[in-house]
């Protein structure tokens, strides 16, 4: 026969099991809500990664296009320089070698004092071309 002590011990074990089951259910619910929030964040980050990849692709295409245009411009400049060196310019052909070229007139504005108070040097055509890149 079952004694009263055995029934009380069994009752104590059942109460502990019920309390443990309740705690596990609460923990399970908490973990499920955390998982749901994490999955939402993962989806959001995947969307951002996708946007960044698209932007990166557009940036790369823009850089490639700019480099292509720069190469084309560089080739055109190189061709112009080599063709200009190979044949004399029309102005050079028109000038006779016996006649010296007249000196360029220096405008008074070009001789304004520089920062040190000395007259500024007139700008030469060569130095003006060196700064004009477009």
Characterization of the model:
There is one protein chain. By secondary structure, this protein is an all-alpha fold. Helices cover 71% and strands 0% of the residues. The chain is built from three helices and no strands.
Shape: rod-shaped
Helix content: over 70%
User: What percent strand?
Assistant: under 5%
Rg, alpha carbons: 43 Å
Please provide the count of β strands. 0
Helix- and strand-based class? mainly alpha
Low-confidence stretches at least 5 residues in length (pLDDT < 50)?
Answer: 104-112
Overall pLDDT confidence: 79
Query: In oligomeric terms, what are we looking at?
Result: single chain
Please give the count of helices: 3
Cα distance spanning the termini: 109 Å
* Series of H and E elements: HHH
Could you give a short account of the major beta sheet? none
Q: What is shown here, in short?
A:
The chain has three helices and no strands.
How are the SSEs ordered, and which strands pair?
Blueprint: H1 4-86, H2 90-94, H3 125-131
Which key phrases capture this entry?
single chain, 134 residues, mainly alpha, 71% helix, rod-shaped
């Amino acid at each position: 026969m079952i004694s009263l002590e055995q029934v009380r011990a069994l009752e104590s074990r059942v109460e502990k099991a019920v309390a443990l089951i309740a705690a596990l259910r609460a923990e399970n619910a908490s973990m499920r809500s955390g998982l749901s929030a994490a999955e939402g964040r993962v989806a959001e980050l995947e969307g951002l990664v996708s946007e960044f990849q698209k932007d990166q692709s557009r940036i790369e295409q823009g850089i490639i296009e700019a480099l292509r245009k720069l190469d084309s411009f560089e080739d055109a400049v190189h061709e112009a320089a080599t063709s200009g060196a190979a044949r004399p310019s029309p102005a050079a052909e028109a000038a006779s070698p016996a006649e010296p070229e007249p000196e360029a007139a220096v405008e008074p504005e070009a001789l304004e004092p520089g920062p040190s108070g000395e007259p500024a040097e007139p700008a030469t055509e060569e130095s003006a071309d060196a700064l004009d890149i477009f």
